Amino acid sequence: MMVLNANSQEPGADPAGRKSSGGLTLNERLMLSLVRRHGGLPKAEIARMTGLSPQTASVTMRRLEDDQLLVRGERQRGRVGQPSTPLALNPDGVFALGLKVGRRSAELLLLNFVGTVRQVLREAYAWPSPEGIARFVAQGVPALTETLAPDLRGRIAGLGVAIPFELWLWGDIVGADMQAWRDTDLVHLLAEVQPYPVFVENDATAACGAELTFGQGADYPDFIYFFVGYFIGGGVVLNGTVYRGRTGNAGAVGSMPVRSPTQKWGQLINVASLFTLEQALKAAGEDPSRLWRTPDDWDDLGSVLDAWIAMAADNLAQAIAAACSVIDFSAAILDGAFPVAVRERLVAATRAAMGRLDLQGIVAPQIVEGTAGSMARAIGGASLPLFDSYLLDPKVTLKEPVR
């Protein structure tokens, strides 16, 4: 992950108005992370979970309340002991901007502290250019931030970008010359057109992080994640954290070898991507641009979509079985840049395809739907500044707080 602090705030200031050269302390970030994970906790429970003294926990929580990062819930009664008041993340405590740069469309959204998308802007194109993305961001950031009340605009933590790494390698498939991306410093480019710190992550990894942080991922400590975009990408989660591997390329599921019904070997990217659906629509005389212009409405795609779902499901099942022969995943989570109804059909078809495979020697994982859909990559991008300044990675131990 790359980061450039382009924030125009004075040195030492943070979006919550605190002035400390180090920002939030480790204990403050730990408490915010615990509260986020559990949805709300009373002070006594936080003290128990962190090992902090009740006094230290109380003082720290009060400070987070004063900073408006935490809010009090309703007082809980009817339990043993004194009534307790749970504390939860303040949805308006922090905001972040998320940008997805795709091969056919871009998406810019405003995310609040609990992962709710407040506003979103979309733009479709034949292919992305650095200048076009910079213009989209330059126009979109003010449009989104102006939807916030004036007293909340200073609480934007940064801009997180989800983009395929080495985007220029696929220009021949997109049908465009995208070599300009090879020499583009995206962090500095975007820092010049808007005032917030810029963070960059691979798009599929960002989508996986969004599912882990705000979606179904919290229910599965180990899972393999597939995101079907123009191409297919994914991620690996082990022990509750995204595993990036030795070179950062773990979860490159598009490169997994699969065998087609014609008994030819190829890669998953060639059969379970929206690029394949786009080509099939073109061959059928249909306009494929609706895939990117209206990602939530694919009514009447008919038999072309039916055939693509069947092919993608057969090959996804092969990839899931192969992955589970190496790591005993509890789940395979499938999501993509398509309508919810299409996701439901793809998951059901993949479950059926798994049932037709010889799975002797492995335990089939649960195959479940993701939750974020086409916005998963932008949501994952927006989570980057939140984790950079306010939250801890789930892998951080809760046993050794700073005293």
Entry keywords:
alpha/beta; six-stranded mixed sheet; five-stranded mixed sheet; globular
Biggest pleated-sheet summary: 6 strands, mixed
Individual helix count: 12
C-alpha Rg, in Å? 22 Å
Bin the strand percentage: 15-25%
Q: Distance N terminus to C terminus?
A: 29 Å
Query: Average pLDDT across residues?
Result: 87
Q: Count the strands? A: 15
Proportion in helices? 25-40%
Globular, elongated, flat, extended or rod-shaped: what is the shape? globular
The sequence of SSEs as H and E is EHHHEEEEEHEHHEHEEEEEHHHEHEH
Q: State the low-pLDDT regions, or none.
A: 1-22, 397-403
Which class best fits the helix and strand makeup?
alpha/beta
Biggest sheet strand order reads: 1-8-7-4-5-6
Would you mind describing this structure in some detail?
The protein is α/β, with parallel strands linked by helices and 403 residues long. The chain has twelve helices and 15 strands. The longest helix has 23 residues, at 302-324. The two termini are 29 Å apart. The strands form four sheets. The protein has a six-stranded mixed β-sheet. Strands 11-10-9-14-15 form a five-stranded mixed β-sheet, with helices on both faces.
